[in-house]
Amino acid sequence: MTQATADMAPGKTPAASELTQLDPDRLPAILAVSMRLRNFVDRVGRFGSWFALPLILVTAFDLGIRKTGWMQVWLVENVSPYFGSTLLQELEWHAHTVLFCLVLGFGYIWNTHVRVDLVRENLAFRKKAWIEFLGLNLFLIPFTLVVAYFAFVYAYDSWSINREPSCAWYECGEVSASLVGLSHRWVIKLTLAFGLVVVLIAGVAVWLEVAVALFGPPHWRFHLSTLDWPEAEGSTIEGKERLDLDAAPDELERRARAHGDDGSAER
What we know:
The chain crosses the membrane at residues 44-65, 93-110, 131-156, 192-215. The chain has 267 residues and is mostly helical. The chain contains eight helices and four strands. Strand 3 and strand 4 (240-241) form a beta hairpin.
């Protein structure tokens, strides 16, 4: 650290020459923990995003055979009762629940969740960081802890319903209110609780990042999930690089030029 950086007043942005980009493989312990938590949330979210595929396929299949009428009756009677409309609709709901719950934390660490950002957008970096820090301390983390606790109670109660002593741990439990619905309702309720835990982990990961940004050395630069460093503001939007149309190459012109060069070479 230079003497100028050491004597820098709190909140003042260091000059570009004084900034230190931290190596992701040699991060301080607190940021290394944040990165591991963030990587876990990222993997869970990417896994959960695949449930969009069965959700679309089951919904389209259900609508298709329901419109024919006779095909659904034939499938239920000759293939499997799982082709019944009630079972397919509950599979759709369950796939949507898994998709939603597992990508909640993913959306937060990639800053792609919805923000009603009328004031924060125009504030200075440290004010944005303080809003994020206080929001995590006062709202996201406490709220998620409370809701996750009741979600686990909700799942446990579902698991305990209709449980005979002879039942294995994965048997019995709450079933659908419909006589032809799905069983093991506690599984999807447990997924809801797990998704809230993933959101909590995402909140802790971002909290560690913001805490270092506010209270750590001002010349450190590292990945921030929900904020842009002062020198990088305007270069990203919702966690993705902003495309500058004035500076970006003209793709059509580039292709036309490449096509012209190929034609000249052939001649």
